[in-house]
């Protein structure tokens, strides 16, 4: 079974992913994979340098993620170009890892942990889409505190993502992370029991 796990910035997707990993799921972290596919020498690396120039590289020649983010943050066309470079490589790597895991663990559970699951079209490659939600105020507070930035800046980042309202339209399962950490973990544990009992099917 492959679960696509997603949620907007500050919703609490990482907590849900962590708990699923503890319970025995195989976690494929799209952010980690995205960093790997742009390493020097990889195809996406050269495509990014060709499109955005050497100004997005740091002193040792690797992609400077912060510099690149600043370029695409205010330029939707540039962001689309970047996603067109990275998303196919992330999808390919994710598919290969999932296929290899299921070959050895046919009854295993894979969690494709991806903030851009829907935007990248990866929701079509999973058995279920799980969306983590939280109140907007909570999300703003969490991210501004975590990243030591203003609520206004967080709002801008949220506006650049698919809205929570749109995201839940794709959901087979919604996990509400507006309460305590323990309440969210309890929801995940209940869902895991349903998977183990065969009550939550593909």
Automatic annotation (TrEMBL):
Its EC number is 2.7.1.24. Keywords: ATP-binding, Coenzyme A biosynthesis, Cytoplasm, Kinase, Nucleotide-binding, Transferase. The keyword Disulfide bond does not apply. Pathway: Cofactor biosynthesis; coenzyme A biosynthesis; CoA from (R)-pantothenate: step 5/5. One of its GO terms (cellular component) is cytoplasm. Belongs to the CoaE family. PANTHER family: BIFUNCTIONAL COENZYME A SYNTHASE-RELATED, DEPHOSPHO-COA KINASE-RELATED. This is Dephospho-CoA kinase. It comes from Metallumcola ferriviriculae.
